[in-house]
Structures are given as C-alpha cells and as structure tokens.
C-alpha cells in the first residue's frame, strides 16, 4: 500500500470491506462463522481479526494475520486465545482495557488503537488499527466486531498509561481520588491537612505525569484505569 496509513484511511477501508461482505449477505449470525466469510477476508491486503466482543476474544483471523502471528488456522482455539494475549506487548496492554471499555459503553462507531504485536514469536512490530461492531444481539448489545490493522513505518507510541500511573505518589493518588469525587482544592487541603498551595503543586505534578491538561482528561483516565 502506497497511501499514507492513518486511522481515517483505515476506517474507509474497513467500511468498504464491511459493505462488500454485507452485499454478499455474509454479515449474518448464520454466516458469521462460515468459510465463505473467511475466504472474503483473505482477499484483503490488511490484517483482519473477527472478534466475539460479548466474551472479549478474537475468534477468526485472515491469512495475512495468521501468517503474522505464526498460527496454523484461521479459527482460534482456547489455546490460541491464551497465546494471543502474549502477542500484545505490555507497553500497549492499555489497548485491551480501552477495547473492553469501548464495547461496554457502545457510544462511538470506531475504536482506534495503536499496538505493539509479536511477529512470529520473534520480534515486536508497531501497528495501528480500527475496529467497529458488525453484528448486534437482539437486545442491541454488540456481539461481533471486525478489526482492520496495518503496519505503518512511522507509527509513534506514547508512553504507556500504566507506566505513567506508576509514577504517581501515594499522596497524588489521594488527591486524584478527592478531585474525582468533586472536592475543590480548598476542600482537599482541609481533608489532607495540607496547604492549598501544596494541593495545587500536587495537581500540577499529576497533570504533568499523566500528560494531561484538564480535569475532564483526568476523569477519563480514572474511569478507565485503576489508580
């Protein structure tokens, strides 16, 4: 592929693929686990994974993705699911948490993530991908989703959020808990028996360590991760 690899471009390709599968009547509960679906997925130039998001696990890979991981089959077994978790570098484990949160909230169309994945059990490769729900249960909850990944040469990863959280002190975590509970900096100073100036310093350090600039970003992090 010679075009620039961006999330927007990947979304376009994912939509084109889904439209093609729909036109062939392959995105149905009766055909979602069919060899016909796999055959169409194998025609793609991208790395594809079909997920059962109700149980948060991949169930099928196209040939390009199978070759990347070094698997032997398109359809994953229980053993493959165990190994699959090992193919995600610890520095991008946050992608797993974001995936779970994305499908539980179900309020956005695309899940865009960066990954560091293990190539043939030998070396780590930087990849980016986009995912969206393709089939829902009768109650409207997401059931199956399709991920489309690519391997751009220039993908840059931010420091893993877990590594950032590790840098927080015990006192900073206390301040975060109180901030997210709705207390003002003055209230926090009284509860922790420290000056407002000290609280303000803690808040600045928290923002710096987490690479954020406003309280709403802190809320989002606390909602997704355990601090």
Fold topology:
Blueprint: H1 7-23, H2 35-41, E1 47-52, E2 57-61, H3 63-69, H4 78-86, H5 94-105, E3 111-119, E4 123-136, E5 142-150, H6 161-166, H7 170-180, H8 185-192, H9 196-210, H10 215-224
Antiparallel strand pairs: 1-2, 1-5, 3-4, 4-5
* CATH architecture term of the largest domain: 2-Layer Sandwich
- Total strands: 5
Shape: elongated
Beta fraction of the residues? 15-25%
**Strand numbers in spatial order across the main sheet:** 2-1-5-4-3
Which CATH C-level class of the largest domain is it? Answer: Alpha Beta
Helix/sheet category: alpha+beta
Number of domains: 2
CATH topology type of the largest domain: Beta-Lactamase
CATH homology superfamily name of the largest domain: PAS domain
Radius of gyration: 21 Å
Q: Major β-sheet, in short?
A: 5 strands, antiparallel
- Could you tell me the mean pLDDT? 91
Number of helices: 10
Helix amount: 40-55%
């Amino acid at each position: 592929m010679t075009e620039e690899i961006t999330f927007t471009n990947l979304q376009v390709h994912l939509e084109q693929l889904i439209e093609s599968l729909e036109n062939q009547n392959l995105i149905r509960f009766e055909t979602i686990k069919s060899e016909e679906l796999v055959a169409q997925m194998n025609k793609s130039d991208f790395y594809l994974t079909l997920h059962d998001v109700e149980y948060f696990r991949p169930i099928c890979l196209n040939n390009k993705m199978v070759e990347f991981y070094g698997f032997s089959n398109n359809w994953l077994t229980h053993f493959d699911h165990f190994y699959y978790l090992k193919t995600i570098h610890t520095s991008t484990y946050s992608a797993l948490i974001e995936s779970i949160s994305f499908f539980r909230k179900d309020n956005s169309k695309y899940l865009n993530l960066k990954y560091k994945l293990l190539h043939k059990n030998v070396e780590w490769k930087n990849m980016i991908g986009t995912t969206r729900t393709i089939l829902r249960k009768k109650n409207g909850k997401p059931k199956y989703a399709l991920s489309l990944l690519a391997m751009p040469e220039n993908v840059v990863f931010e420091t893993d959020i877990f590594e950032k959280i590790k840098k927080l002190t015990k006192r900073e975590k206390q301040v975060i808990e109180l901030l997210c509970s709705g207390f003002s900096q003055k209230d926090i100073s009284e509860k922790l028996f420290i000056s407002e100036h000290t609280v303000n310093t803690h808040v600045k350090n928290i923002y710096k360590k987490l690479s954020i600039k406003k309280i709403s970003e802190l809320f989002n992090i606390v909602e997704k991760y355990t601090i």
